[in-house]
Amino acid sequence: MRLEEYWGVGPKTRETLTEELGRERAIEAIESGDVRALADAGLARGRATRILRRATGGGGIDVLATSDARSAYKELLDLAVEYAVTRRAADRIRVLTPLTDRDAMNERLDDVLAARDAWAALAEDDRAAVLAAYERYDEREESEHAAVETALALLEAGVDSGPFDAVADLERERLAAAADALAALDGDRGRVRAGADEELDRLRAALGTVEDMDANALELIDELRSDGVRDVSQFRESFEDHLLTETEVTVDQVRDAMPTDATDATDFVGATLRTLRGDLTAAIDEREAVVAGEFEATLEANREAVDQAVGAVDDIALHLSLARFALAYDCTRPTFRDGDRAAVSVVGARNLTLATPDAGDGDGGDGGRTQTQTVQPITYALGDHGVSEVPVGVNAVPGEERVSVLTGANSGGKTTLLETLCQVVLLAMMGLPVPAERAEVTPVDSLVFHRRHASFNAGVLESTLRSVVPPLSTGGRTLMLVDEFEAITEPGSAADLLHGLVTLTVEREALGVFVTHLADDLEPLPTAARVDGIFAEGLNPDLELLVDYQPRFDTVGRSTPEFIVSRLVANADDRGERAGFETLAEAVGNDVVQRTLVDARWAEDD
Description:
Layout: H1 11-21, H2 23-31, H3 35-40, H4 45-57, H5 67-81, H6 87-94, H7 102-121, H8 124-139, H9 144-157, H10 165-168, H11 172-184, H12 198-215, H13 217-226, H14 232-247, H15 251-257, H16 265-301, H17 303-328, E1 335-336, E2 344-349, E3 378-382, E4 403-408, H18 414-429, E5 438-441, E6 446-450, H19 458-468, H20 470-473, E7 478-483, H21 491-507, E8 511-515, E9 529-539, E10 545-552, H22 561-571, H23 575-588, H24 590-605
Parallel strand pairs: 1-5, 4-8, 4-9, 6-7, 7-8
Antiparallel strand pairs: 2-3, 2-5, 9-10
């Protein structure tokens, strides 16, 4: 395969990769999603990531039909990356894309949820030991030795199910022997590290001492003479004793190294030390070859276990990272809906951007439950869903309409609901657990997510229509999540265009949620569409808006300017400013404003 056949690889990129990695290694790096290899070769990390998303994710990235959908996707990846146990795992998370095959989605879900359950069952000390092992693995750039030590740490922690099976099947004794061999041979092959063999350490220490003596031979001679040595015989004996004491060489080695034809003390000492250096160097080489051969034989005998450990530890790092993410946000397995027509439903769904993850990052003593007291879970559904219950206070079950028009209070969570649905669908299609008690998802071919953009000009309108309409026109399953379309054109035209979008979504049998304040101007809606509403309920004692974020189905929500005006009146310090806000209070209903402020004070007294 030619490198140019990969998306994003042109002649210049091909030349860079071929020059730095070679063609085969470059292809291997792309196929395996190795961001670091491409970045080290000279590609910008962002570009490398984009290339690999296309190469490893296939057409899944095309599901993201708008720039806002792509932004939401990247935001999810950023959240998940925070729980990566290695840099390589973080890189692999960044190249995950929506999957196009249902079996692949379920397979990844199986792995991540099995890893989640296994990780949740571990004692805190065992979790810490595994994370420490992965930290060392990361610091040592995923060397074979670090991989084997990490596999041993996983075995010691007792993880033996799901994606950990590949390690659980390995023999601990073989891995331990391989770890010792790799520790001894760490570095250039044929070289043995200090501490691996006592005899080799002794010879190396002796050589180092002899080399130091040789470098300071004249000082040594003066030292021996200062001890009262008077003749050649005494000098010879004193020198021999010094060598035996300082170097731990044998007496035979010393005597064999001493020359018989030295002309003076300098010649005698220098010749002896040079001979000893040569003898010790030869002995070291011989011993090192023997020891290295033994360790290499051990390593070869356990090569299969080492290779399995290297592959397993890297894959486990990915699944473990995703498992920690799922635990931190209390994510559950989504159900994939069958059938020709798409459906999306969530029960107790939470927006990940607002949810506060478990304080222990999935490693705490509470089992990884998400701390989301301030985030109201939402139930919502589109299409042929399975939702049969709704939260207390909502007196209707969502119908099976494929399209909804979502109305209601300012700051009422309408945009957050769109984001939540987007997050659930994206995570499910990536084969990852979702932040909901239950969720049913039909994978879509196009996800159209459009956030509110307060730019009022023809160029913005045209570009928006160019991004949101084509996915509906090309066939396949489409999910439309459109926020305040009216913000980009005048209200009259906006209502007409939005009605057309709703109608087109219904006609194409797509799913859609359209957030708007123009619900009354959209009547009559197609029969496959409904209007849902979110309601504000007043102000709390701090004069903050109280909102029930759970939509009420088949109910038009209403904006609540009187609550906002009430807060402005109460907070006005300047007399003139207060008078201005009181004029607005009369416009929206002064009695309503006063009642709102009284209710807030009563709530404070209670």
